[in-house]
């Protein structure tokens, strides 16, 4: 009876450790190995938050989110497209919404991974201000050679 009781406790402890390890892996994977689209989203949002033209039009602080929806999961999901061009350069395109205290807009961002510097660089960053008054701002424009 004692051996079976000890074995069942050991089994429960092993399962608990397995669940804890899976949770730790999920957190580590999310924080350290962030998907490309979120890295690009964060870089573009930082660039927009630092831009005086955007701050003047929609105010500060500026927040960014994936989709216009009341659904929290939809707001966290960033629409994106990843492809490799004919030269083997990796490209990514993200579209998301921004909001400030005085207005809102939509962002169209395209970046490429520089083969030499191994860093993501803007191809284009366009902010379409929808309110309070419509405007289109070209914050970044670059054609790789």
TrEMBL record:
<comment type="similarity">
    <text>Belongs to the TIM21 family.</text>
</comment>
<keyword id="KW-0999">Mitochondrion inner membrane</keyword>
<keyword id="KW-0809">Transit peptide</keyword>
<keyword id="KW-0812">Transmembrane</keyword>
<comment type="subunit">
    <text>Component of the TIM23 complex.</text>
</comment>
<dbReference type="InterPro" id="IPR038552">
    <property type="entry name" value="Tim21_IMS_sf"/>
</dbReference>
<keyword id="KW-0496">Mitochondrion</keyword>
<dbReference type="GO" id="GO:0005744">
    <property type="term" value="C:TIM23 mitochondrial import inner membrane translocase complex"/>
</dbReference>
<dbReference type="Pfam" id="PF08294">
    <property type="entry name" value="TIM21"/>
</dbReference>
<protein>
    <recommendedName>
        <fullName>Mitochondrial import inner membrane translocase subunit Tim21</fullName>
    </recommendedName>
</protein>
<keyword id="KW-0472">Membrane</keyword>
<keyword id="KW-0653">Protein transport</keyword>
<keyword id="KW-0813">Transport</keyword>
<keyword id="KW-1133">Transmembrane helix</keyword>
<comment type="function">
    <text>Essential component of the TIM23 complex, a complex that mediates the translocation of transit peptide-containing proteins across the mitochondrial inner membrane.</text>
</comment>
<feature type="transmembrane region" description="Helical">
    <location>
        <begin position="6"/>
        <end position="28"/>
    </location>
</feature>
<dbReference type="GO" id="GO:0030150">
    <property type="term" value="P:protein import into mitochondrial matrix"/>
</dbReference>
<keyword id="KW-0811">Translocation</keyword>
<dbReference type="InterPro" id="IPR013261">
    <property type="entry name" value="Tim21"/>
</dbReference>
């Amino acid at each position: 009876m004692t051996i079976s009781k000890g074995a069942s406790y050991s089994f429960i402890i092993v399962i608990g450790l397995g669940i804890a390890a899976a949770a730790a892996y999920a957190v580590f994977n999310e924080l350290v190995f962030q998907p490309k689209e979120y890295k690009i989203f964060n870089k573009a949002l930082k660039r927009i938050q630092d831009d005086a033209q955007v701050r003047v039009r929609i105010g500060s602080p500026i927040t960014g989110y994936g989709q216009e929806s009341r659904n929290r999961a939809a707001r966290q999901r960033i629409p994106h497209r990843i492809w490799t061009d004919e030269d083997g350069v990796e490209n990514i395109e993200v579209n998301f919404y921004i909001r400030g205290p005085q207005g809102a807009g939509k962002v169209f961002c395209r970046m490429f991974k520089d083969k030499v510097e191994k860093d993501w660089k803007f191809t284009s960053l366009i902010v379409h201000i929808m309110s309070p008054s419509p405007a289109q701002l070209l914050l970044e424009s670059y054609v790789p050679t």
